[in-house]
What we know:
The protein is mainly alpha-helical.
Amino acid sequence: xxxxxxxxxxxxxxxxxxxxxxxxxxxxxxxxxxxxxxxxxxxxxxxxxxxxxxxxxxxxxxxxxxxxxxxxxxxxxxxxxxxxxxxxxxxxxxxxxxxxxxxxxxx
Length: 107
């Protein structure tokens, strides 16, 4: 006579589930897609962090003469100023210091 507690108790989450497959209810294709999505999301977050760090390190004005960089007040600065970005820092140069077409010579 077998006792009730000697028989293993198996609870299935779904009647359609395979009794041999007790773990991993997610299909393989779905797992791959979720992993790829997670990797893409992680790479995008890393890139956004790097861009934010560069923007935070960007100077507030011209690196040569010190003229303030205010693109919200004067949007033409975005077209006229020269921005050089490296992996470590960014350099801003106003149109006068960069030698634009209507630039006055820097002394």
